[in-house]
Design a protein that fits this description.
Layout lengths: L2 E4 L2 H11 L5 E4 L3 H21 L5 H21 L5 H15 L5 E4 L4 E4 L12 H11 L4 H16 L3
């Protein structure tokens, strides 16, 4: 069995290609710019879903769950949870991922999607620090602003000095 190891951006695509050979196994770490690109694409899908929606939560919730999962992945690798909104996203991610919560409410008055109140989420198993951050920084706020804030934070953190 061939084992391909790659941690370099240039080598990552080659390792993926080599690992697709029969019997090959890849140990591959996605480069930081791939993670940022994936998160940014999820945020763009959220933005499009929000603009096209008139209260139907399906596409908005799908893009939000995807964005939250990418933030979770980025945070595990780059430890960006010193930011209160990232901690709040941790709560939202766990609610959507484990509790199947939509974490969303459509405000007909402003025609914007907002974060739900934390008390409406079904999962009782939460990190109290993340729930507090969610309540303080996200609950009731427009969601796209949170995602864009975190995108700027991630870009700054992952950009070379």
């Amino acid at each position: 069995m061939a084992i391909c190891r790659s941690r370099q951006k240039a080598g990552a695509t080659q390792a993926v290609s080599q690992a697709s050979a029969p019997g090959a196994r890849a140990i591959l770490t996605m480069p930081a710019d791939w993670l940022l690109r994936a998160y940014s694409a999820a945020v763009e899908r959220f933005r499009q879903a929000e603009e096209q929606s008139t209260g139907d939560a399906r596409d908005v919730c799908i893009a939000l769950a995807e964005s939250a999962n990418w933030i979770h992945t980025i945070n595990e690798r780059f430890h960006i949870d010193g930011d209160i909104r990232v901690k709040g996203m941790g709560f939202a991610r766990n609610q959507t991922h484990h509790g199947w919560s939509a974490a969303v409410v459509y405000d007909k008055g402003t025609q914007k999607w907002r974060w739900c109140d934390s008390r409406v989420h079904p999962s009782p198993n939460t990190n109290p620090k993340h729930e507090k951050a969610y309540t303080q920084a996200l609950a009731g706020e427009p969601r796209i602003e949170t995602l864009e804030h975190i995108e700027r934070l991630v870009r700054k953190r992952l950009s070379p000095p």
